[in-house]
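Sequence only, no structure available. Ideas?
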Amino acid sequence: MAVQAQGFRAFKIGWGPFGRTNSAMDESIVRSAREVVSTDSLLMVDAGGDAFWAQDYKWAVRTVRMLADYDIYWFEEPLPPDNLHDYVLLRDHSPVPIAGGEVLTRRQSFAPWL
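Reply:
I predicted one. Tokens follow.
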């Protein structure tokens, strides 16, 4: 991989068909990425869970367990941004760190998360 040869050691994948087709496609994407970057590099997955995200907590839990098998460094935006309750549950049950909040733009949006 050309960017790895330049010294990059962390890569983030996601969006596109990830989370939008089926779990077999999701795992295929992650497996392929892990094979390319190897375990010498950090690999993060961004589900792109924006306001129109159709996936739910059950999907996120199943997916995060699969991601753990591929040594994923973090799972980003697995749920809609206003679903604080399910983010808390997911964080409490996830073997992979959960990232999110990039769409929160006002201090009022951040207050419940703090």
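Residues 78 and 113 are 16 Å apart (CA to CA).
Hope that gets you unstuck.
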